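User: Um, any thoughts?
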Amino acid sequence: MLDETIFITGGGSGMGRLAARNFAEKGYQVAALDVNEQGLLETAEFHQNIRTFNVDTTNYEAVAQAVDEAETKLGPIRRVYNAAAIMPLGRVVDQDVEVFHRVMDINYNGVVNVSKAVLPGMLERNEGELVNFASLAGWVPILYMAAYNASKFAVVAFTEVLHHEHRDSNVNIVCVCPPPVKTPLLDQARDTVWPKVFDQGAHIEAQDVLDAIDATIAAGELFVFPGKGTRMAQRLRRFLPNLIWKNVHQTEGF
């Protein structure tokens, strides 16, 4: 059993669950965090080296306590996956203001909380990987996605600055920007509003995202754009934004 810890938020389902199980099977100690206690128990089933923490990442003190406990009982944190997120969609005028605050608290402030809690130890050891999950939606705004877009744009900017502030260290800081991925997160869109543009491309597998993260870390790069056409979509948004919006309006019908 390896004495290094993998620290994963959103470990109760989807990408976080898959990452937790992958690393557990490789012999790492895994600290899996989520507010979904039942989901955490399912993630840890048959994996004695997955320790679960029923923690809300919007609570910095709780996150810091989980980091301390994980490093004390499991070992120094080698890699972090900031994967916790929510994605309720809808027009701005139709969503309650509390939804916007909650999305930002979880998707962005949670990333900040975890980053602040784990980075000092990594920097002191001068090793490790901090993986923050943004999205292609952190580059390309889409109708119905104002709250989610804003939170992921914030993660992109935060992680880019953080990366450059520590570029001379041996701590790798990367930002993951996938297109729609086949995880339960998409169910939140189905339960609210499903943008028709989501049907224009194939949804990628969670394992493809995790593999792309490994490749990006090995290459020492900042941004992870998994999936065919993802990097091109980001470039189109940058250089031809009106073309993107034309397609969105035509597809959504308004």
